[in-house]
Amino acid sequence: MELAGKRIVLGLTGGIACYKAAELARGLSKSGASVQVVMTQAAQQFITPVTMQALTGKPVFTDQWDARIDNNMPHIDLTRDIDALLIAPCSADFIAKLAHGQCDDLLSTLCLARPEALPMMVAPAMNVEMWQNPATQRNVRQLKEDRIGILGPEAGEQACGETGMGRMLEPVRIQEEIVAAFQPKIMAGKRVLITAGPTFEPIDPVRGITNLSSGKMGYAIARAAREAGADVLLVSGPTALPTPHGVQRINVQTAEQMYDVVMSHVSGQDVFIAVAAVADWRVANVSEQKWKKDEHGNAPQLQFELNQDILADVAALPNKPYCVGFAAESEQLLRNGEAKRKRKGVPLLVGNIGHRTFGKDQNELMLFDDNGHTHLPLADKQKLARQLIAEISRRMH
Ligand code: CTP
């Protein structure tokens, strides 16, 4: 329930992306938010207020002369005592209205009448030419100057048949941005480098050695760092996870590739968090051709050599960032965790309690530092990731 207790006004303007607003309203409500929908006339051509009412459990407002509000001023009342104002989809026309402070219907009027401190975000959705038009770009610049958050758009296939920039961000991405808007910006201006996922060490062209890391914890930390205002670079082994919105990601396969990418990007980073489950060994005698069974069915003789330790090498750099390691221990976490922290030369080491965390959505952590250890009880990985970012930020100061 990432949005528990939050009150959000969701405005819909005219555009085919209105069909995605239904999913967005549902997602926001399921996350605990109370969602009040307001629709323009044009939006009602694409989706009905009945649908939006059914999804949010609240009657929709469409008319500035709506008599349901006691003082008959929905354009004022609807934005008092709320936590965020979101327009999704936001049409080119509505962006133009916002840029000029025009108000000729309920939604545009309540936008102009919103309290100054209320966070407001818009998710543009329109044809690529409309988006690229200098008039729209000028209006978008104006919105940014007015401290209105612009979510997207993204590039891709459009409903009109053309391809390019202008698609509304996917509802899950918009929701991520709303959640992010409510997080304290404790890492503002910081650069954070994170490794995540497993590595894959080839044996031959079609086989390899990997491990059960899903990347979920590392990706959750990347998202949490970005929510906290950091500039995040994620170096990821093979995973099936989507990149958190606003995070830059470089994909690698082997431990050696991960080492090279980290080393070439580490300069200027403020924090390095090594979450990846890096293979300790790689196969020294990788076969160029697929290993074949011989007539006796003998197993191939694999030889191994040690991979370089990315975390220990970053922690040994003269201008090192604040380094955080992870430990996957299958036994004696308290003793092994502190020993590993010393061996890696890092100020903070995070132990997974129990080694069965791989692939799960929940985790339980033990933090080791100079002052002993701190327990973060079993919780959703995203929640733990936010707690960990707060712990890192506190220790860095
Ligand atoms: N790590 C790394 N590079 C490696 C191996 C590990 O950066 N070649 C990092 C991991 O990302 C993690 C930490 O080191 O943050 C600890 O990894 P772990 O596998 O638990 O420790 P090892 O050093 O491999 O020790 P052991 O396997 O002996 O427990």
CATH class of the largest domain: Alpha Beta
Count of the separate structural domains: 2
Low-confidence stretches: none
Bound molecules: cytidine-5'-triphosphate
Radius of gyration of CA atoms, rounded to a whole number: 25 Å
Q: Briefly note the structural class of the backbone.
A: alpha/beta
Shape summary: elongated
CATH architecture classification of the largest domain:
3-Layer(aba) Sandwich
- The total of helices stands at 13
Mean pLDDT: 95
Fold-level CATH name of the largest domain: Rossmann fold
Q: How much of the polypeptide forms β-strand, as a percent range?
A: 15-25%
Strand order of the largest sheet: 12-11-8-13-16-17-18-19
Helix content: 25-40%
Total count of strands: 19
CATH superfamily placement of the largest domain: CoaB-like
Straight-line N-to-C gap: 30 Å
How would you characterize the largest beta sheet? 8 strands, mixed
Structure commentary:
The protein is of the alpha/beta class and 397 residues long. It has 2 domains: 7-181, Rossmann fold (3-Layer(aba) Sandwich), CATH 3.40.50.1950; 191-396, CoaB-like (Rossmann fold, 3-Layer(aba) Sandwich), CATH 3.40.50. 32% of the residues lie in helices and 24% in strands. The chain has helices spanning 18-30, 49-56, 74-77, 92-100, 106-112, 128-132, 134-145, 171-181, 216-227, 255-265, 310-315, 333-344, 381-396; strands spanning 7-12, 34-39, 84-90, 120-124, 149-150, 154-157, 163-167, 191-196, 201-204, 207-209, 231-236, 248-251, 271-274, 281-283, 304-306, 322-328, 348-352, 362-369, 372-380. The strands form 5 sheets. It has an 8-stranded mixed β-sheet with strand order 12-11-8-13-16-17-18-19, with helices on both faces. Helix 1 crosses helix 8 (171-181) and helix 9 crosses helix 13 (381-396). The longest helix has 16 residues, at 381-396. The two termini are 30 Å apart. 43% of the residues are buried. The chain binds cytidine-5'-triphosphate. Cytidine-5'-triphosphate is lined by residues 195, 255, 274, 276, 278, 280, 307, 309-311, 325-328.
